[in-house]
Amino acid sequence: MSNVRHTPHAPTHARTLAAGEHIDAHRHDEHQIVYAGSGVLAVTTDAGTWFAPGNRAIWVPAGTVHAHRAHGELDLHLVGLPADDNPLGLDVPTVLTVGPLLRELIVAYTADPADTSPERGRLRAVLRDRLRASPQRAVHLPTPDDPRLAAVCALVHADPADTRTLAALAAATGAGERTLSRLFRSEFGMTFPQWRTQSRLYHALRLLADGAPVTTVAHRCGWSSASAFINVFRRAFGHTPGSYLRRP
């Protein structure tokens, strides 16, 4: 990423991002927790894109060059932590599950960044404890390095409803199926079907954030039926796409 803005301190505050709004590439000398109570948040680095609906947050380690994009209107909450305060022990961006208690802690902590009271200090301590207990989720679309892999990924991203097999996609891009299968495992640590499901979920979240009906999203993202989509979505995010649409 070029023209990277450097902000030494990761700000702790709450703000709203309109649908489609983005924050350009920047980095902090501190860690940051980024949580969107509504809409879908996408955080992109050179290594790929991490995405989070309203029951997920994204951990961004100190020094990581990253950009934010809003899909749907974002109720964004950002918590900065000093570089020597890493309760998660993570040095790569990671998606975290946000339960009801952690959500309320983040919202309360970001409500008044100027507050230096002992009460807010205790709130921060509980927030850190709940972070350590938050499950990590692989909701991530890695950036391909190999041009053959990149060509196939581009085809799938361009049309999530494309049902072609890896063999057919290999033929369309002039690559070998076995080579591509190996590249998916070596570069992404997952099989082609696993990666395609991640890609489809990302597109589905974006469409849901824009208000598209569940049935429409299912078909536009390649699922054979709305029920099949609902099952995959529930396993990935812990709730149905219909309940996601009804989130405040």
Mean pLDDT: 90
Secondary structure tally: strands: 12
**How much of the sequence is in beta strands?**
15-25%
User: How many domains make up the 3D coordinates?
Assistant: 2
What is the helix fraction of residues, given as a range?
25-40%
Which structural class do the helices and strands define?
A: alpha+beta
- Topology order in helix (H) and strand (E) letters: EEEEEEEEEEHHEEHHHHHHH
The spatial strand order of the largest sheet comes to 1-3-8-5-6-12
The CATH superfamily label of the largest domain reads Jelly Rolls
CATH names the topology of the largest domain as Jelly Rolls
Radius of gyration: 19 Å
* CATH class wording of the largest domain: Mainly Beta
Our count of helices gives: 9
Based on the structure, what is the oligomeric state of the protein chains?
single chain
* Separation, N- and C-terminal Cα atoms: 34 Å
CATH architecture label name of the largest domain: Sandwich
Q: Could you say which overall geometry the principal axes of the C-alpha atoms support?
A: globular
**Uncertain segments:** none
Biggest sheet descriptor: 6 strands, mixed
